[in-house]
Amino acid sequence: MKIGINARTFAVDEPGGAVQVSINHTKHLIDRSDTDVVLFGHESLASLFSNSEIDSSLYLPNSQVYGLLWERTALPYLIKKHDLDVLYCPNGNAPVTSVACPVVMCIHDVNALKGWSNGIHQVYRRIAVPRGAKVADRIVTVSEFSKHEITKKIDISSERVEVVYNGIDPLFFSSDSGEELMLPDDYILFVGSMNPRKNIQGVISAFEEVKQTECIPHKLVIIGPDNKSIFKNIEIEKEDHIVMPGFVTDKQLKYAYENADVFVYPSLYEGFGLPPLEAMACGTPVIASNRTSLPEILDDAAVLVPPRKISDIASTIATITTDVEYHSKLAKKGKNHAEKYTWENSNDDLLKVMRQTFS
User: What DSSP element (H or E) covers 134?
Assistant: First the structure.
């Protein structure tokens, strides 16, 4: 099966969760013996996919703004040139007019359509995503929650939307201890972008409350890339008890997960939520929001709390950090639960949708 992938969004220095998921899917599709994959995007993609066919025709400056123009003008011609069986658009970046092959479009969530993005990006997504969804032959998304959001917000039939859950990198299950980071001996961990929907201020407030009430020795470690200008941003005041390493490698992230006492993720809006599953895979207890997709993805393997109730988050942190038996029980339960999510299963499900679309 010949698959084209619109890889325009991959050419970034610090990829966010949705782009990382798309890159993982692409690597697995390339590695399969039953697929022939060609990537469309900037020539810098060669650094990620060194042994893959990449068509960067007319993609001149490595600019996302220029990429939008390329996507609307050059990409339809390139699709026809390569005689594809299907085009996969992994980040809501599908053509807005019909092209020469069936199109499968992935929409991770509709956060931009609900006001969680910023400025021109939000305007663009509100126009382009619904239009692309209506033109695409099939849509995949990452949770039943997102499927419901898509069908409600974009007004398309649920029969056109398939759920393909994300997977967890085998690194996080392995005995590899990762690459050491300069972190405190005792710490609570958050991983994510500096976006208000991640509720980082809620994490900080809960951490400060438990520090005052329980006098725990822990610091708060916040790992993640600087927020992109396309998203609404937050400012975090630098405190002695808050450590911010910034964007880290996967091996450094493994080390951070594995050595944290608790992972806290009270997000206000998630289409899937990969970091808490990665933390579970590393044997770290998880506290997460009881809203949006997180109850579906995490089930009862995490402690789910109302994300706006700071005292609930704080008291749960206190319980897990002081009750050794409960900590151990929750860590074991989380690790077992995380094993359900593999990239092999996820990629099989995605390819199944592509085959159905082609046939």
Answer: helix 119-135
